[in-house]
Amino acid sequence: MAYQKVNADQRAPGHSQYLDNDDLQATALDLEWDMEKELEEPGFDQFQLDSAENQNLGHSETTDLNLDSIQPATSPKGRFQRLQEESDYISHYTRSAPKSNRCNFCHLLKILCTAIIVFIFGILIGYYIHTNCPSDSPSSGTVDHQLYQEILKTIQAEDIKKSFRDMDESGEHHPQPTDTRTENEIPHILTHRNLVQLYKSEDDMEVSKKIKTQWTSLGLEDVQFVNYSVLLNLPGLSPSTVTLSSSGECFHPDGQPCSEEARKESSQDLLYSYAAYSAKGTLKAEVIDVSYGMADDLKRIRKMKNVTNRIALLKLGKLPLLYKLSLLEKAGFGGVLLYIDPCDLPKTVNPSHDIFMVPLNPGGDPSTPGYPSVDGSFRQSQSNLTSLLVQPISASLVAKLISSPKARTKNDVCSPLQLPNNEIRVVSLQVQTVTKLKTVTNVVGYVMGLTSPDRYIIVGSHHHTAHSYNGQEWASSTAIITAFIRALMPKVKRGWRPDRTIVFCSWGGTAFGNIGSYEWGEDFKTVLQKNVVAYINLHSPIRGNSTLRPVASPSLQQLVVEKNNFNCTRRTQCPETNISSIQIQGDADYFINHLGVPSVQFAYEDIKTLELSGEVILQIANEPVLPFNALDIALEVQNNLKGDQPNTHQLLAMASRLRESAELFQSDEMRPANDPKERAPIRIRMLNDILQDMEKSFLVQQVPPGFYRNILYHLDERTGQFSILVEAWEHCKPLATDETLQEALSKVLNSINSAHVYFKAGLDVFKSVLDGKN
What we know:
Elements: E1 3-5, H1 21-40, H2 51-58, E2 80-82, H3 101-132, H4 145-152, H5 157-168, H6 187-190, H7 205-217, E3 221-235, E4 241-244, E5 250-251, H8 260-265, H9 267-271, E6 275-276, E7 281-289, H10 295-304, E8 311-315, H11 321-331, E9 335-339, E10 358-359, E11 389-392, H12 395-401, E12 409-410, E13 413-414, E14 425-431, E15 433-447, E16 452-462, H13 477-493, E17 500-507, H14 515-523, H15 525-531, E18 532-537, E19 551-552, H16 557-568, H17 588-593, E20 599-601, H18 610-622, H19 630-640, H20 649-673, H21 681-692, H22 723-731, H23 739-773
Parallel strand pairs: 6-10, 7-8, 8-9, 9-11, 16-17, 16-18, 18-20
Antiparallel strand pairs: 1-2, 3-15, 4-5, 4-14, 7-14, 12-13, 15-17, 19-20
Helix pairs in contact: 1-3, 4-18, 5-13, 16-18, 19-20, 20-23, 21-23, 22-23
Main location: membrane
Keywords: Membrane, Signal-anchor, Transmembrane, Transmembrane helix
Subcellular location: Membrane
């Protein structure tokens, strides 16, 4: 009777076709033990050895091990299966009479010899596999911190400074408010606006060429320009002015008199103190102090005064600028004087004469909203994006408008700038801008992935602007991204590659409303929607003086915390990671709000913390299973619904169901996939496809101006609820019922339900695949 070995271990797809040494040893031992047990069992009347199998065992040193013949068995006897008797048997034994001791000894000797031969043969095959055959398991089965550190340890601060100096030769700096804190420490100011400096040149081709030359010389693959002809709103031939009607005094935005001498000394600086895409012209009207322009402020003011065609004195902060301007425009104001109250800045900063520029553009080329500015595209004719005359001014000019002394600090308490209620100020505001079609250039290069080249990690910075925080002018985003490329490419040249493709982008036109990134995203939207895994934002990577302030999607927050804790073990100080999901400035905007791509941004204290960003990039690019956390999204949703919030009972119930489905997905699919033995290629690919698209369920179509379409992001660190709900509750306070609130509640409910259905569908797909295999 013939026997076949039963394979008890169900190999996962993608496992090596050869057994390793331990498997062959176990096979030999099982063979010896089971055959002895089988022979000793009562009722075992007869058996026969297949002649071909016996021959193969006798010549095992010249025959390959054929695993195709090893099939699972259902025999109640255990791991051997009794087969039908065959006609060409060699010998036939019966147990009707007792066997002699000599016969039993012979059979045992044969079994022992067979086991020894298989054991030796297994050792030879195992040695051959480990020395000559590559493994089919993923090349990056575990987080290789040593590899990442080997790459990142070559980053030097001096290299970043040198890269910045090379870029800086292309243009001239213009002053802006200098801040020593991170943007999260002043979330209501720096998060909701772009305070930028512009180079003297209107086109950024010169600096783009330098970036391309640097990246190409470092070995980055296929570095190229991606150009778009877009509508830019530029300063006029002369700076804007504010004239006091009572005295006839004329002032520039920085508070200096409109003298010829002052204009000559700082003409370029004054020109670039403006609001891009503002209406232009002249307006003479009363100035009304609206503080931060909150809904309550406007309601109070409108009860006391007629605001039609008046000029609002508006502080930056607390809400997105575009949202506040929309409220002022709706209320009937004709102009806005925009400023930063010194009380909202650190004590070490004196912004009295600082001037700045803000874009009123929500994103992309205003003449081609929602579609790319490629040749042949229809262009809408609009030179401004608001009917308001908007002009940024310095705190010193505000002090002159309200007749306030410069020293407003008493007993270390700062007194906010405020126009007295019983006084009337009339000014003449003149705003001059020019609208032109200009070329915006993006620089794009990549490192091709090895196993999943069609999955992209985008690392984005910007050029044509230069930030200066506490004198650290070398901390520009382009210099940082170039330093990372310089550290990465030597490893690539020696043969190493990440599993997924890393795409490096330096965007143009960021100062005018993230135009370069928007146009590129709209141009390649179909590809990016399917293939982008994550966006790493290096908009302002080095700023602040003490604390790391990462901003990340909920699905990436756990990874950021793990990276920070791991790096803390190598440093003397280990500060707590203050991570949040708040609206951030910069070119991550399109990827977060239109593609639903998980994103992360770091703000650094010094060069050492640059390792965090580099490790996150490498781990996302190189891990077989994307390091995204599904359950954290569900927990974030539940946290957003905490507190005393009206009409949220349905949202809470739906959020509970989302958490249940996310927990099942996390335990049933993600945890097993983190075991290398369970990493079947088709299973990993399906899992990663689900992980990279989790946030798309939380994109809503219509939001108030300046608010994120991705509702997982908050307005600032102090706001723990869904931003669109916060705005809707403020809007409906004086009303018994309001459609705006109901609409906002519906948007959040539909997003939560969509995510719940998404996770359930993912679980069903995995179950169907597994059932099909069984």
